[in-house]
Amino acid sequence: DLQPLIRKLHSYGITGVTEVTPGNDREDLAHYCEAARPLNICIMGGADLHAVSGDNARAIGPLKIHNHDHDLPPLATLVQEIGAAHDHGRAVAIHCVTRAELMLSLAAIEEAGPFSGDRIEHGAIVDAVGIDWIKRLELTVVTQPHFVAERGEAYLRDVDADDLPHLWRLKSFSDAGINLAAGSDAPFGDFNPWSAMANAVKRPNGLGAEEAVSADMALALYTKPVANAGGNARKIVVGESADLCLLDRTWSEASHDLAAVNVHATWVAGELVYDRISSINPHSSAV
């Protein structure tokens, strides 16, 4: 039953999610398409999703590849896996939290040939060489700016000093013109996008203060189309889907303290799915 989780997401103003489990198969896809309503969903998963047809096919996202630093596959194997996904019209999303994982992934994507929508998940440690390579391949990076706050003490203790300047970068990606988005990586990170945006705007001492971005940029990282993390941030204009949230303050006020933001109401496709007043007092009228 996903409804308790969905209500929590709606309370943060979240109207769409990407489910990134590598092992998602056709049964998982069917379950999410039915049980995750009303959320816009993008379901990553394995090769079992390559040839799915019908209505559920619209929810299929990239092939998720989760390699591990201690057991990396041969380059040729990874190239073949990426190529097979591309042949079926699917991009790839490759988990990269170490330098070795990133270098192998970039080499494999380059040899297979980059495909629109290919993305690096996390990009936890990316130096200047990696940034240039990602830019040249026109990849998207989907990162988690809140980890520097949630795990900052551990990073300062355990990460090599030479790697700290390259840890969970934001502004460097943006300045390089790399397509960039952000997500929670929940349950490994906090669900709350507003506290994550606050961490993007102000980073802990010793963990790349120069990588902080503006409040407007932080918001843009979390308002990408659910099926196109590398696309432009969504805007409130005629013709867009009515996936909206109403804050308890103006954006000018919110931008000065993103972590304090509360969401009053959330709509998905024009339907009111969350009303904070009614949730606090069930006898109140909906907004």
Descriptive account of the structure:
With 287 residues, the protein is an alpha/beta fold. The chain has a single domain, classed as Alpha-Beta Barrel (TIM Barrel). Helices cover 34% and strands 17% of the residues. It has twelve helices and ten strands. A seven-stranded parallel sheet has the order 1-2-3-4-5-6-7. Helix 4 packs parallel to helix 5. The longest helix has 14 residues. It starts with a helix and ends in a 7-residue tail after the last helix.
Notable characteristics:
three-stranded antiparallel sheet; seven-stranded parallel sheet; 12 helices; alpha/beta; single chain; 287 residues; TIM Barrel
Helix content estimate: 25-40%
> Uncertain runs with pLDDT below 50, 5 residues or more?
none
Tally of distinct domains: 1
Strand-residue proportion: 15-25%
| Radius of gyration, in angstroms, nearest whole number | 19 Å
Largest sheet entry: 7 strands, parallel
Secondary structure tally, helices: 12
Structural class: alpha/beta
Order of SSEs, N→C? HEHEEHEHEHEHHHEHHEHEEH
- What is the third-level CATH name, the topology? TIM Barrel
Shape: globular
Write the CATH architecture name: Alpha-Beta Barrel
Q: What is the β-strand count?
A: 10
Q: Please, what is the CATH homologous superfamily?
A: Metal-dependent hydrolases
Strand order of the largest sheet: 1-2-3-4-5-6-7
CATH class: Alpha Beta
Round the mean pLDDT to the nearest integer and report it.
94
Cα distance, first to last residue? 27 Å
